[in-house]
Amino acid sequence: MNTSMDKKKGILLFGHGARNPAWAMPFQHIRDAILARDSAVLIELGFLELMQPSFAEGIDILVREGATEIVVVPIFVAGGGHVNKDLPMLANQAMTRHSGLIIRLAPPVGEDASVLAAMADYARTVQPVE
């Protein structure tokens, strides 16, 4: 029996979007790496513009899969207008469309110390393309 305490969590990887379809490949790789660790995770991509699925479509997919709580992970180096203004508005719209849905917003990945350390290691050791 489902109670208000039973929550099925989902993850939405949120990105800006671009005209070049190859731009989404890192997002797909992140999703695939998460699924390789736990194939039962509900995870979807959602883009602000120019790519599919849109933020709203990604949320709708997760809700159809049974998610009642979604953590949105902005795949951005830092917060800016899209993360600080657009994202909360999109999340509120989605929670209005889906009664009872809880959306929590994670900080941008680029603000995490381990991600910054990985980028520093990469910059220190990368071999330039010739």
Please explain how this structure is put together:
It is a single chain. The chain has 130 residues and is of the alpha/beta class. The protein has a single domain, classed as Rossmann fold. Helix content is 41%, strand content 18%. A 4-stranded parallel β-sheet has the order 2-1-3-4, sandwiched between helices. It is globular. The mean pLDDT is 94.
**What's the overall geometry?**
globular
- Please identify the structural class as seen in this structure: alpha/beta
Oligomer: single chain
Supply the number of helical segments.
4
For the record, give the distance between the C-alpha atoms at the N and C termini, rounded to a whole number. Answer: 60 Å
Q: Helical residue percent?
A: 40-55%
Which percent range describes the beta-strand content? 15-25%
Q: Going across the major beta sheet, what is the strand order?
A: 2-1-3-4
Query: What is the count of structural domains?
Result: 1
Overview in brief:
By secondary structure, the chain is of the alpha/beta class.
Topology:
Layout: E1 9-15, H1 25-37, E2 42-47, H2 55-64, E3 69-74, H3 81-97, E4 102-105, H4 113-125
Parallel strand pairs: 1-2, 1-3, 3-4
What structural keywords apply?
Rossmann fold; alpha/beta; 130 residues; four-stranded parallel beta sheet
